[in-house]
Automatic annotation (TrEMBL):
Pathway: Carbohydrate metabolism; Entner-Doudoroff pathway. GO terms for biological process: D-gluconate metabolic process; Entner-Doudoroff pathway through 6-phosphogluconate. Binds 1 [4Fe-4S] cluster. [4Fe-4S] cluster binds at residues 156, 223. It catalyses: 6-phospho-D-gluconate = 2-dehydro-3-deoxy-6-phospho-D-gluconate + H2O. The gene is edd. Residues 68-380 form the Dihydroxy-acid/6-phosphogluconate dehydratase N-terminal domain. Coiled coil: none annotated. Its cofactor is [4Fe-4S] cluster. The lineage of its organism: Bacteria, Pseudomonadati, Pseudomonadota, Alphaproteobacteria, Hyphomicrobiales. Residues 408-601 form the Dihydroxy-acid/6-phosphogluconate dehydratase C-terminal domain. Belongs to the IlvD/Edd family. This is Phosphogluconate dehydratase. Catalyzes the dehydration of 6-phospho-D-gluconate to 2-dehydro-3-deoxy-6-phospho-D-gluconate.
Length: 607
C-alpha cells in the first residue's frame, strides 16, 4: 500500500531535492560494505588487540570470521534515571548473542547529559552540542571495524539523535536501537506544574517544591511526560529502528528483558553473514523520515526534533527542511493528548493502545508509508501490534485493539483532537521559527502585543520578581541561538509566563533559543533563525514594538515599517560570560562551526 497522494507529493519533493546527496551517500556505504566492513581486513596484530579479552572459543570464531560480532554502543550512567537501567543490558545482550550463535562486545560508551538537571544552569549551554559529541564518540567505538552490526542503547534528548547520526554514518552496518523504557507513573504532571507555579509566586517553599519534583521523577526510566526523550522512542519505532512494540515498556520487567534479548538476536540475524542483510543506511530512506515527521505531528511531539530530524536526515544524504515539516503538519491530525498537551503521561498513552494503535490508524488512512523497510523486515504493518510476554518468556505480539482504551488520551483518526499536527513553522519579517500548537488553546494562538526585550531568561525572571511584567506583551529573548551560547533550552520561562497567562494577561514568547520538549500552554515562537548574533532581525526589535504571532496562519511579524526596521542598528551583547566555566571553553569550536537551527544546528557537515 502506498501513502496518500499529499504525503507522496511531499516525499517525492524530498527525494528529488536529495537525489545527488543520497546517491553519494549510498555509494559511500556500498564501498564500505564491499571493502572494509569485516574483520578479514584487519592484520593479526589488529585482531589480537580487538579480541584479547575474549574466550578461546570466541577468539577462534572471530579470527575465522565465521560468526557475527555485535557492537554495543551504550549511554549508560547511574546518575540519570533514563540511562541507569542500561547497566545490566550488556550482560543480557552478550548472553542472548551466545544463544544465537554470535558474539557481542561493548564497542564504546557515549556521554548522556540530562536537560532536566541542567535547566537554567551553565551546563545547559553544552546540551545541543552534546548530540554531535555523542555521534563522534559512537564513531570512535565503531571505528575498530570489529563488528558486523551494532545495537544502540540510548533514550534521552540528544542521545538518540546523536546515535542515529552515528548509525547512519556507519550505514553499511545493520543497526537496532534498544530502549530502556519510561519510569512508572508518579505525581501527575499537572500537579507538579501547579507546585512549580506556587513556588514561583512565593506561595510554596523549596521543601514543598523538592517533594513534588521527587514524587514526579522517582525511579528508573525516562520522565513520563511527552518531551524529547519519549518523542525519541516514538521516532525509533515508527521509523523501524526498534523491534515492534518496544518503546514504552517499563524498565526492570520480564517483558523489557525479553524485548532486549529479541532485539539482540534480530541484530545478529540481519548482518551480511546471513540471508537478511539490512544495512541501516539503505534501510532508512526518505519515506522513513516522512514517517517520523508524521508521527511527531500525530503525537504532538517535541519541538527539538525540528532540529534533530534535519541533522539525522543529512547523515543519510537526505535534505529535509522546515517547509517539509510544516507541510506535513497540514496533512496529519493530532491523535494523542499526553502531557504537556493533555493530563495523561506516556504510561497512560501506552495503556490506551500506544504506538501500535496509532500506527495502525495512520496506516489505514494512508498517512504513513507502509512500504518501508525496518529492522523487522518489509513493511510497517507489523508495528501495528501490542507486545506482551508469552508463556515461554519470549515476546508475544497481538494485533493492536481496534478501539482506543481511552479516547481522551489516544483518539481514532475520525475523532482527532485537531485536524492538523502539533507543530507549525512560522515565517515573516523576523525570519523563520517553530511553534508547538498542540498544548496551546485555539483562542491563544493569535496574539498581537508590544515587545518586552531581554537578552537572557534571567532578565525576564528578574522583571517578573520586580513586578514589571504587566499588561499584554510578547517576551523577546535573544542571543540564545547556537552560535551565541549553544542554544540552551529556556525552560525556566515556562512557569513565569504560565503564571501571567493564568492571571488573564495575553502573553507569548519569541526567541532564537529552544524551549523544553515539554513546551506548554503559552504560545512560543522558538528557534528563530537567523539568530541575533548573526544579525538576525530579532536583534533589531525594540521594547514596545508591536509583534504579531499568528500560529494559525503561520506568520511571525514585527509591525514596524520596513524601511525603518531595516535601518535600525543590530543590538550587541557581550557574550564573554557564556564562553567559560562548566566546560564551555572546550566548545568554542562548536560555537564557531555550528550551522543554523533550520539546517539542523550541526557542527559538522555530514552531506
Amino acid at each position: 500500500m502506498t501513502a496518500r497522494r499529499d504525503i507522496e507529493v511531499i516525499t517525492e519533493r524530498i527525494r528529488q531535492r536529495s537525489k545527488a546527496g543520497r546517491e553519494r551517500y549510498l555509494s559511500r556505504i556500498a564501498e564500505a560494505s564491499n571493502r572494509t566492513a569485516n574483520r578479514s581486513v584487519l592484520s593479526c596484530g589488529n585482531l589480537a588487540h580487538g579480541f584479547a579479552v575474549c574466550s578461546p572459543s570466541e577468539k577462534l570464531a572471530l579470527g575465522a570470521d565465521k560468526v557475527p560480532n555485535l557492537g554495543i554502543i551504550t549511554s549508560y550512567n547511574d546518575m540519570l534515571s533514563a540511562h541507569q537501567p542500561f547497566e545490566t543490558f550488556p550482560a543480557l545482550i552478550k548472553e542472548a548473542a551466545r544463544e544465537a550463535g554470535g558474539i557481542a562486545q561493548v564497542a564504546g560508551g557515549v556521554p548522556a547529559m540530562c536537560d532536566g538537571v541542567t535547566q537554567g544552569q551553565p551546563g545547559m549551554e553544552l546540551s545541543l552540542f552534546s548530540r554531535d559529541v555523542i555521534a563522534m564518540a559512537a564513531a570512535i567505538g565503531l571505528s575498530h571495524n570489529m563488528f558486523d552490526a551494532a545495537v544502540y542503547l540510548g533514550v534521552c534528548d540528544k542521545i538518540v539523535p546523536g546515535l542515529v547520526i552515528a548509525a547512519l554514518t556507519f550505514g553499511h552496518l545493520p543497526a537496532v536501537f534498544i530502549p530502556a523504557g519510561p519510569m512508572t507513573t508518579g505525581l501527575p504532571n499537572d500537579e507538579k506544574a501547579k507546585v512549580r507555579q506556587l513556588y514561583a509566586e512565593g506561595k510554596a517553599g523549596r521543601a514543598e517544591l523538592l517533594e513534588a519534583e521527587s514524587k514526579s521523577y522517582h525511579g528508573p526510566g525516562t520522565c513520563t511526560f511527552y518531551g524529547t526523550a519519549n518523542s525519541n522512542q516514538m521516532l525509533m519505532e515508527i521509523m523501524g529502528l526498534h523491534t515492534p512494540g518496544a518503546s514504552f515498556v517499563n524498565p526492570g520487567t520480564p517483558l523489557r528483558d525479553a524485548l532486549t534479548r529479541e532485539a539482540t538476536k534480530r541484530a545478529l540475524a540481519i548482518t551480511a553473514l546471513g540471508n537478511a542483510y539490512t544495512p541501516v543506511g539503505r534501510m532508512i530512506d526518505e519515506r522513513s523520515f516522512v514517517n517520523g515527521v508524521v508521527g511527531l505531528h500525530a503525537t504532538g511531539g517535541s519541538t527539538n526534533h525540528t532540529i534533530h530530524l534535519i541533522a539525522m536526515a543529512a547523515a543519510a544524504g537526505i535534505a529535509l527542511t522546515w517547509q517539509d515539516i510544516s507541510d506535513l503538519s497540514e496533512a496529519v491530525p493530532l491523535l494523542a493528548r499526553v502531557y504537556p498537551n493533555g493530563l495523561a503521561d506516556v504510561n497512560h498513552f501506552h495503556a490506551a493502545g500506544g504506538l501500535g494503535f496509532l500506527i495502525r490508524e495512520l496506516l489505514d488512512e494512508g498517512v504513513l508509508h507502509e512500504d518501508v523497510q525496518t529492522v523487522w523486515g518489509e513493511g510497517l504493518r507489523p508495528y501495528a501490534v501490542e507486545a506482551k510476554l508469552g508463556a515461554d518468556g519470549a515476546v508475544l505480539r497481538e494485533a493492536s485493539p481496534r478501539a482506543s482504551g481511552d479516547e481522551k488520551v489516544l483518539a481514532p483518526f475520525n475523532k482527532a483532537f485537531q485536524a492538523t499536527g502539533g507543530l507549525k513553522v512560522l515565517a515573516g519579517n523576523l525570519g523563520h521559527a517553530v511553534i508547538k500548537t498542540s498544548a496551546v488553546k485555539p483562542e491563544r494562538r493569535i496574539i498581537e502585543a508590544p515587545a518586552k526585550v531581554f537578552d537572557s531568561q534571567q532578565g525576564l525572571n528578574d522583571a517578573f520578581k520586580a513586578g514589571t511584567l504587566t499588561g499584554d506583551f510578547i517576551a523577546v529573548i535573544r542571543f540564545q541561538g547556537p552560535k551565541a551560547n549553544g542554544m540552551p533550552e529556556l525552560h525556566k520561562l515556562t512557569t513565569v509566563l504560565g503564571i501571567l497567562q493564568d492571571r488573564g494577561q495575553r502573553v507569548a514568547l519569541v526567541t532564537d533559543g529552544r524551549m523544553s520538549g515539554a513546551s506548554g500552554k503559552v504560545p512560543a515562537a522558538i528557534h528563530v533563525t537567523p539568530e541575533a548574533v548573526e544579525d538576525g532581525p530579532i536583534a533589531r526589535i525594540h521594547d514596545g514594538d508591536i509583534i504579531r504571532l499568528d500560529a494559525d496562519a503561520g506568520t511571525l511579524e514585527v509591525l514596524v515599517p520596513g524601511t525603518e526596521f531595516a535601518l535600525r542598528r543590530t543590538a550587541e551583547v557581550d557574550l564573554i560570560g557564556n564562553e567559560f566555566g562548566f566546560g564551555r571553553e572546550l566548545f568554542a569550536g562548536f560555537r564557531q562551526l555550528v550551522g543554523r537551527a533550520d539546517h539542523g544546528a550541526s557542527a559538522f557537515d555530514t552531506a
